[in-house]
Every structure is written in C-alpha cells, then in structure tokens.
Specification:
Blueprint: H1 2-16, H2 19-23, E1 34-39, E2 42-47, E3 53-59, E4 62-67, H3 69-112, H4 125-128, H5 133-173
Antiparallel strand pairs: 1-2, 2-3, 3-4
Coiled coil: 72-106
Signal peptide: 1-24
Keywords: Coiled coil, Signal
Length: 174
Amino acid sequence: MKQSYLASGILALAIATGAPSAFAESEPEVPVRFEMQETDNGLLRLDTRTGIVSLCSNKGDTLVCQPSIDGIKVYEDEITRLEAENDKMRQELRRISEALAILTEEASIAAIKPETGLDLSLANPQEEGWFGKEEEQKLNEALEFTENAMRRFFSVVEEMKDDLQKDEQSGSTN
C-alpha cells in the first residue's frame, strides 16, 4: 500500500511541477524571423537569423525598413563571398569544359580511325582484371555483331536514299 501512495505522490508532484506540458500535445515551434520593438523614431526590426537591426517607418501605406550600417556591411560581405565563390565555380566550369572538349575531340578521332584507336577506359582491363578471356571474347563478338548490324543498317539507308533520289530525278524528267 505504501508503494501505491508513493507512486501516486510522485505522479501528483510531476503533474504539479510541469509535467502537464509533457502530456499535452505540443505545437511545433516555429522560429520567429523578425522581432519588432517600437521606438520614438519608428520600429526597430531585429532579424533573428542574421542579427541585422533595421529602423522601420511608415511611408504612406507601407512600412519601409532601412538596415543599419552594420547590416549593410553584413550584406556587402555576403555579396563579396558569393562573388568569390562564383568566380571559383566559373574557373572550374571552364576547366571541365576544356577537358570535355579535348576528350570529345579525341573520341571523334578514335571513331573515325579505329585502327589507331583511343583507349578511353580509366584503366587497362587486363591490368585490372575486369574481364576474363571468355567474357572478353563474348564482348568482342557482341561488338562485331553490333558493328555489322550498324553497317547493314546504314547501307540500307544509303540504298533507300539513292532510290529516292533516282525516283525524284526520273519524276522530274518525265
């Protein structure tokens, strides 16, 4: 019996000292971005994220806020930082574009002159052991099949093109 009185007493103490907030549904806390304080000259607005203080006054139907000199400095510093970051990104983009142009040119040359070939792989498959002999043979057979199929396809396209040109020429001479 003493234990139940003790448990009841602890529960009552917990409820009395603030536990109701733990049991009640709590609303999600929404951080307040700006805090306003009325002054003789208007309103002071504190941006709780940046710490910038602005003096706000009514101009017609709108509230116009002017940041403090420190606030302007914060914005200028951020602009300077972003400009430097932008310059770095532009340089990196230029470097990547140049590298891509070189790779594209080399790939085009390799496609035109397959006998000279350009190894675009990151490592030599034999060194890395990507394929065994059997897989290498299957890959070569698949590539040969694809190459032959593409040659046939383009051959058919050329024949159709020639036939179309002949029909157009014979149609214009009649």
